[in-house]
Design brief:
- By secondary structure, the protein is an alpha/beta fold.
- It folds into 2 domains: about 120 residues, Response regulator (Rossmann fold, 3-Layer(aba) Sandwich), CATH 3.40.50.2300; about 100 residues, Orthogonal Bundle (Arc Repressor Mutant, subunit A), CATH 1.10.10.10.
- The chain is about 40% helix and about 20% strand.
- It contains 8 helices and 12 strands.
- Helix 2 runs parallel beside helix 3, helix 6 crosses helix 7 and helix 6 packs across helix 8.
């Protein structure tokens, strides 16, 4: 049975999400604020977290950052703020999906299933794909979900890992922004091209001297090409 943590200071919201989650046979735990959620995550493992943004004591974004220091667990954020800036900020903190209030509980559970399916597929590492790849000083452990830049482990959000791993598994292939949105974020994701561009920018920042391994294809998208002339790996 999958375990879900629901974090919201509104009891009615928690009750509605619990009802639908238990109907789909989730084991549900509730927290009333971010501090309580962080404490629970220190002591327990969850398969997915549903978390509100605006809460007393510790807001959802801050709680997400603290939880990410301990666990790599999918997080869906709930918020009354639906502006693109707010959504992109959420993804920069490492969340997996963003649902605007008021929301349909059925849609939320559909998103839960989609996020869990993508998380499970990412952890499987692709089965027939080589699990540890090295491109010069850039080392990528697909199974362990770790990236090393010249021997130093890079700190990335789960979505940055997903994006890099998808690019690497399709090394040398031109991938459109729409294709990346579909494969990395899922068919039901609300975002647009700027979501991909924002994450590529953050990802390149974490790759340091190997940022040029991700090549921009003007008017189209991106590809992972460690053998391009600008890459440090091509000269090693």
């Amino acid at each position: 049975m999958s375990k879900m943590l629901i974090v919201d200071d509104e009891e009615k919201i928690r009750a509605v999400v619990r009802e639908y989650a238990e109907f789909e046979e989730f084991e549900v735990t509730e927290a009333r604020d971010g501090m309580e959620a962080v404490a629970l995550c220190r002591e327990n493992d969850y398969d997915i977290i549903i978390m509100d943004v605006m809460m007393p004591r510790l807001d959802g974004y801050s709680a997400c950052k603290e939880i990410r220091k301990q666990k790599d667990v999918p997080i869906i954020m709930l918020s009354a703020r639906g502006e693109e800036y707010d959504k992109l900020f959420g993804f920069e903190t490492g969340i997996d999906d963003y649902v605007v209030k008021p929301f349909s509980p059925r849609e939320l559970m559909a998103r839960v299933r989609a996020v869990l399916a993508r998380s499970h597929a990412a952890k499987q590492g692709g089965g027939d794909t080589q699990q540890r790849l090295k491109f010069g000083g850039l080392e990528i452990d697909l199974a362990g979900r770790e990236v090393y830049v010249d021997g130093v482990r890079a700190s990335m959000t789960p979505k940055e890992y997903d994006l890099l791993f998808y690019l690497v598994k399709n090394k040398g292939l031109a991938l459109s922004r729409d294709k990346l949105l579909e494969e990395v974020w899922g068919y039901d994701f609300f975002g647009d091209d700027r979501t991909v561009d924002t994450h590529i920018k953050m990802l390149r920042g974490n790759l340091g001297p190997y940022r040029s391994d991700i090549v921009t294809l003007r008017g189209m998208g991106y590809k992972f090409d460690p053998e391009n002339d600008a890459s440090p790996a091509s000269s090693r």
